[in-house]
Design a protein that fits this description.
Elements lengths: L6 H11 L11 E8 L2 H16 L9 E8 L3 H18 L3 E12 L4 E10 L13 E2 L5 E4 L4 E8 L1
Antiparallel strand pairs: 1-7, 2-4, 3-4, 5-7, 6-7
Protein name: Protein archease
Organism: Reticulomyxa filosa
GO cellular component, one term: tRNA-splicing ligase complex
Length: 158
Amino acid sequence: MNVTINWKKQKQNYLIEKNNKENLDHTADIQLHSWGDTLLEAFEQVCIAMFGYMYELEDVQLLKHHTVEVSGHDMSSLLFNFLNEFLGLHFEEDYFIFKDVEIILFDPKGFSLKAIGYGEKFDRDKHGTGTEVKAITYSAMQIKEEKTKCEVWVVVDI
């Protein structure tokens, strides 16, 4: 038995009859904004904000610490590398959650810093989760430094 099907007509009918699809708005990014009296405080706070987006930080204890040293070719690359280093440690160290970050050395002319991050490893029974940050981006990154207030904006990929 030979059966010939007009696929174009079948496809047209299917598309007309079936409307089980929709376009959904989707964002793969979130912008973090932090501020402080100094640039160091703004940097520290944006790092904490990143982990606060991923986890409920009030349940995190300061049980361990990790030290990072980073540099860049300008202030934006320093900020990027600073956040990227902490995000990398998060994944490398069994989802270590940084609740507090302290910059202990800072060279603004050489674009380098040393920081200590405090927290603990992720525990599914203890820590609530939000949305995972996958990467830091330069998109819309801003660093605004004034005499009495410093602010930073960083977009992260989620």
